[in-house]
Amino acid sequence: MTANDKVLIFDTTLRDGEQAPGFSMDHDQKLRMARALSELGVDIIEAGFPAASKGDFRAVNDIARQTSGTTICGLARAVEGDIRATAEAVAPAAKKRIHTFIATSPIHREHKLNMDKATVLARAVEAVRMARSFVDDVEFSAEDALRTEPDFLIEVFSAVIEAGARTINIPDTVGYATPEDIYRLFSDLRLKVKGAENVVLSAHCHDDLGLAVANSLAAVRAGARQVECAMNGIGERAGNCATEEIIMALKTRADSYALGTDINTRKLYGVSKLLSGLTGHAVPRNKAIVGENAFAHESGIHQDGILKNVETYEIMKPEDIGVPKSQLVLGKHSGRHAFAERARALGHDLSPDQIDEAFTAFKTLADRKKVITNSDIEGLILGKEMGTQGPWHLKTLQVSTGSGDGALHMAAVHLVHDTGRAVREASMGNGPLDAAFKAIKRATKASAALADFSVRSIGAGADAQGWSDVRLVHDDVSVHGSGVDTDIVHAGAKAYLDALNRLIREAKPDPKTTAPASSARALSA
Ligand SMILES: CC(=O)SCCNC(=O)CCNC(=O)[C@H](O)C(C)(C)COP(=O)(O)OP(=O)(O)OC[C@H]1O[C@@H](n2cnc3c(N)ncnc32)[C@H](O)[C@@H]1OP(=O)(O)O
Ligand SMILES: CC(C)C(=O)C(=O)O
Fold first, then answer.
1. How many CA atoms lie within 13 A of 472 on its CB side?
2. Which EC class, in a word (predicted)?
3. Where a domain ends, among 225, 255, 279?
4. Is the shortest distance between the CB of 173 and ligand 2 below 6 Å?
5. Cα separation of 249 and 340, whole Å?
6. Which ligand has the shortest distance to the CA of 77?
7. Ligand 1 within 6 A of 49 CB?
8. Distance 270 CA to ligand 1 centre (A)
């Protein structure tokens, strides 16, 4: 594949995606997601905005330290402090990029920046020059490009290319453009920007009108060779171009685009599930590519067609996305090989130790459930991954509940701390979950307010497992925890403890790192 036959995938799940309300991830979650994106094969990971907080700096810095083979990028305003922080954060990466930006549209210049055209131009050039003094790979974005006067865009882009920018990003920041607008602008810029032939043109489209993927494809058609996107389409407001959608559109319609990517598409489903698990936001059932219904057929005419020839109603192969067909039924008589194979097919490359641990949990679950579904296995793997890091571990939860006037709800917990200290506590509550949360809070002596709680069934049937998400807030720190169990009270208690553990860990950053300490405050006794 030559550079011109390939579209670079710039994934911004950890920056634009993470900055959307409800999607923030803690340090460990960002590192876990970066590993998954790197294994997926994205070319560039925009890992965060290092000047935003000490926590984001540390996350970008650790991702740069631990991720090989993928370019690690950080975002910086056209401000010296932001560029210095970003340069320092990405420094450990073998392949590093600084992405600097400034808004160019009249409304942003006048009302947000309070700068005239000449000042914006000068700041853009200065920022790129400064970024180039730290790294070779510099990307420049003209924020709100699609509402900017085209002549001014040409002037700014020509100047930043001369100053050393290698990638020119043309964002539709507010998701206002149509595919025709995008095609016209990219074609025009390719012709008129001085030096455009020596740089990569990039699209960054938002989904306010539901056009982010269509607009990104229009940009590619007009010569863009980098697309900025986020898994599950997360991002500001309605989100960004969805990584899984743009990749599968290019692959499925190779007849029309004839452009490749370096993505291992078989991992898309697993990475999408991982992100849902980490953030507590399930993708809608009817979501393209990775939704539960993407390859499911219930109506008779469709089922008949599928049985006669699957291509009557499916334009992609589920296995190309990593959605496995359940040919092997897993239950209590299944062995380690079949289990490991299914986990792999679901996009989880587990180490032998992780397989042992998940397999033991699988056997326990199989004793309680007749048939284990793919969702059950995902629950086991993701749930384990989320709940295993301490410092507190739930050994036993006992709940006594009732219904009707005067019914009492009680919970007793036995927790063990990483130090070996065991604590038993009990509490009454307004319901079994409330009692369990209060007992855990007493045992850990942690203080945090419950901001959100939900539980949903994964898999089908009365014996389906429950997946619970909890969001806790302490001062200005908000964390999410997950728990999976066949008993929904236990799932809720696990999620609550997972979130409490995250708050406690946030308060004590890893002393081994040389990066600035997290701003989170001490929580637990
Ligand atoms: C389209 C996008 O997605 S852009 C990225 C958006 N992401 C984020 O904002 C997340 C990270 N942001 C943050 O943590 C904070 O906003 C910070 C640390 C960057 C700045 O915080 P503060 O100094 O408190 O400023 P605040 O956010 O209130 O205002 C932004 C300031 O930056 C200026 N600014 C905005 N964009 C740029 C830019 N690209 N270059 C230079 N200055 C800029 C604004 O005009 C404003 O300046 P003013 O204080 O002189 O009015
Ligand atoms: C910083 C830029 C690329 C951005 O996120 C936008 O304009 O939406």
1. 24
2. transferase
3. 279
4. yes
5. 30
6. 1
7. yes
8. 34
Q: Which residues lie closer than 8 Å to 86 by C-beta, 6 or more apart?
A: 50, 51, 60, 74, 75, 76, 98, 99, 100, 131
Residue nearest to atom 8 of ligand 2 (CA): 173
Q: Is 506 in the pocket of ligand 2 (CB under 6 A)?
A: no
Q: Which domain holds residue 458?
A: 389-507
Q: Are residues 347 and 249 in the same domain?
A: no
SS3 state at 6? strand
> Could you tell me which residues are beta bridge partners of residue 11?
45, 229
The structure tokens listed for 2 are: 């030559």
Q: How many domains does the chain have?
A: 3
Q: What's the CA gap between 60 and 14, in Å, rounded?
A: 9
Does 170 map to a domain?
yes
| Other beta carbons within 10 Å of 169 | 23
Q: Whose CA is nearest to atom 15 of ligand 1?
A: 52
- Is the C-beta atom of 148 inside 6 A of ligand 2? no
Shortest-distance Cα residue to atom 33 of ligand 1: 113
Is the complex ipTM more than 0.90?
A: yes
Same domain, 107 and 202: yes
For residues 298 and 199, give the distance between their C-alpha atoms in angstroms, rounded to a whole number: 48
Q: Give the DSSP per-residue string, 413-434.
A: EEEEETTS-EEEEEEEESSHHH
Question: For residue 329, is it within any domain?
Answer: yes
Report the separation in Å between the CA atom of 4 and the middle of ligand 2, taken as the mean of its atom positions. Answer: 24
Ligand 2 atom 6 nearest Cα: 173
The response to whether residue 18 sits with its C-beta less than 6 Å from ligand 1 reads no
Q: With CA atoms as reference, report the closest residue to 432 among 465, 407, 395.
A: 407
Give the residue, by CA position, lying nearest to ligand 2 atom 2: 143
Cβ density class 360-378: b for 16+ within 10 Å, e for less: ebbeebbeebeebbbbbbb
98 has which bridge partners? 74, 138
Whose tokens are 């009249």? That residue is 106
Give strand pairing partners of 473: 449, 478
Residues with Cβ < 8 Å from 155, sequence gap 6 or more?
121
Domain C-terminal end among 356, 386, 416:
386
One domain for residues 396 and 501: yes
Ligand 1 atom at minimal distance to the Cα of residue 171: 1
| Alpha helical stretches, state H, 133-267 | 150-163, 179-192, 212-221, 243-252, 254-257
Q: Does ligand 1 come within 6 angstroms of the Cβ of 380?
A: no
Same domain, 393 and 371: no
CB 408 within 8 A of CB 460: no
pLDDT along the chain (525 residues), means of 10: 87 97 91 97 98 96 96 98 98 98 98 98 98 98 98 98 98 98 98 98 98 98 98 98 98 97 96 92 93 84 84 94 72 84 83 89 82 79 71 94 88 94 94 94 92 82 81 85 88 93 75 37 38
